[in-house]
Design brief:
By secondary structure, the chain is α+β, with helices and mostly antiparallel strands. It has 17 helices and 10 strands. The strands form 4 sheets. Strands 1-2-6-3 form a 4-stranded mixed β-sheet. A two-stranded antiparallel sheet has the order 4-5. α11 packs across α14. The longest helix is centred in the middle third of the chain and has 34 residues.
Length: about 450
């Protein structure tokens, strides 16, 4: 067994034999095409199922069900829809920057970012216009608590039995967040239906000036599927909660985390921060409005964002269940095995990224970016199950990062860089906090 495990490691992956089947950790970009890039392996396996159980969403569905749901959700993330999100995001960023000016010393920047980024998530992906604080806080806390508790259960197989967990929660007074999530979902459905009805007159015709419903948010597509939400079944409610958890787990929390790491990298690299600030100032002088095409012209911002996502990828690892035997460099990964592509390690391959722990945006200058082989840079995954919200995440991140840098100079509160804690996400070992120094003018 030892010699076999050594052979796996030499080929860029290693195996851990569990009580049921092997888990294969892939740590080399050279093998991504065989697993992540293959249409044969669309099942994320039991970790994804356990993470959102009993709710099902794009994160945990597999094969035909996943394809159908992805096709259903995809129209909510096309460029024409994202363009309409820019004013929504910018308005909330303005409020966030004001909060950072006033509350950062008492509330901490992480808490402030969470409040406003959750609002952005609800107003974009779910199309809600006026989100009450109580609803936002309810979704935010119950979703995060539920995902954290489910993540802990993945690694404790003795907790997989539902009856055992009910007794365990009762003994220790642990709250089951599932009922809270169901109530939040009902409130979201009700709120969105009321908003949509305000756009219609008594005859059900769109009022003059009301937004057209072409290119709808995800929630609108789902409500239309259930006749404007009037016939949402129990399974439909589970679908909505499953997608809520997907949105919170893969967009809200990851963007908060990515923003904190970006600020960390800027604070510890002041020369890079000032170079980015100069580009942003020059951009403002030439452009009155922000469009996606204009934002894409901010080349140094793009390089900084990509390097931040390389050195601190939002998701540290991505699983796949192998449906048939796979030959990788002469080593057979058996059918039924779970593979876990370790993105954090792949992004630190010294062959591709010399001095990998150094924050160096020049890695993503056009001529250098072109030399990075496929599979060696995968902050949003790879292949058919690449993150469907990648465009929205990049747009939102660039708007948040650029506006913070324009408004403040970021300095670290501590001289040493934070260590990294790896679970499902790439988290700092201890909370990150910064000095937000207002820039002149």
């Amino acid at each position: 067994m030892v010699s076999a495990a050594h052979q796996w490691r030499e080929k860029g992956f290693f195996a851990v034999w569990t009580f049921y089947y092997p888990v294969i950790f892939i740590v080399s970009w050279k093998h991504n095409e065989k697993i992540l890039g293959s249409k044969k392996f669309l099942d994320r396996g039991w970790p994804a199922g356990k993470l959102t159980h009993p709710f099902v969403g794009l994160l945990s569905l597999a094969n035909a069900e996943w394809k159908a749901r992805r096709n259903f959700v995809a129209p909510s993330y096309v460029p024409s829809v994202l363009e309409g999100f820019i004013p929504i995001i910018l308005h909330q960023i303005d409020l966030m920057l004001d909060d950072l000016s006033v509350r950062v010393q008492t509330a901490g920047c992480s808490s402030i970012l969470q409040d406003h980024i959750m609002t952005i998530t609800l107003e974009t992906s779910l199309g809600l216009k006026n989100v009450s604080d109580s609803l936002r806080i309810g979704i935010q806390q119950s979703s995060i608590n539920f995902l954290d508790s489910q993540f802990d259960r993945i690694f404790r197989f003795y907790t997989w039995n539902e009856q055992f967990m009910k007794i365990y929660n009762w003994i220790y007074g642990i709250k089951d967040e599932r009922e809270t999530l169901k109530e939040c979902a009902r409130q979201i459905i009700k709120a969105r239906i009321e908003e949509k009805n305000m756009d219609l007159n008594e005859n059900g015709i769109r009022c003059p000036g009301a937004p057209r419903r072409r290119n709808q948010a995800f929630l609108d597509h789902m409500l239309d599927n259930y006749k404007n939400g009037q016939n949402v079944t129990s399974d439909g409610l589970k679908d909505l909660i499953g997608e809520l958890l997907t949105i919170v787990g893969t967009s809200f929390e990851t963007i908060v985390n990515s923003t904190m790491w970006f600020l960390h990298n800027m604070a510890h690299n002041p020369d890079i921060q000032e170079k980015l600030y100069d580009e942003l100032l020059d951009f403002d002088e030439k452009n009155e409005n922000m469009t996606i095409s204009q934002i894409n012209e901010l080349t140094y911002l793009d390089q900084c964002v990509r390097e931040s996502l390389r050195i601190h990828p939002p998701v540290a690892t991505t699983p796949r269940m192998v449906d048939e035997d796979v030959d990788i460099d002469g080593q057979i990964i058996p059918k039924g095995a779970l593979t876990s592509t370790f993105i954090y390690s792949i992004h630190r391959d010294e062959e591709i990224y010399p001095n990998p722990d150094k924050f160096d945006p020049s890695r993503f200058e056009p001529e250098n970016f072109a030399k990075i082989p496929p599979g060696a840079y995968i902050p949003f995954g790879d292949g058919p199950r690449r993150c469907i919200g990648e465009r929205l995440a990049m747009l939102e991140s660039k708007l948040i990062f650029s506006n913070i840098i324009k408004r403040f100079r970021i300095e670290p509160l501590e001289s040493e860089k934070s260590g990294v804690q790896i679970d499902l996400l790439t988290r700092p070992v201890k909370p990150l906090n910064f000095k937000f120094i207002p820039r002149d003018g």
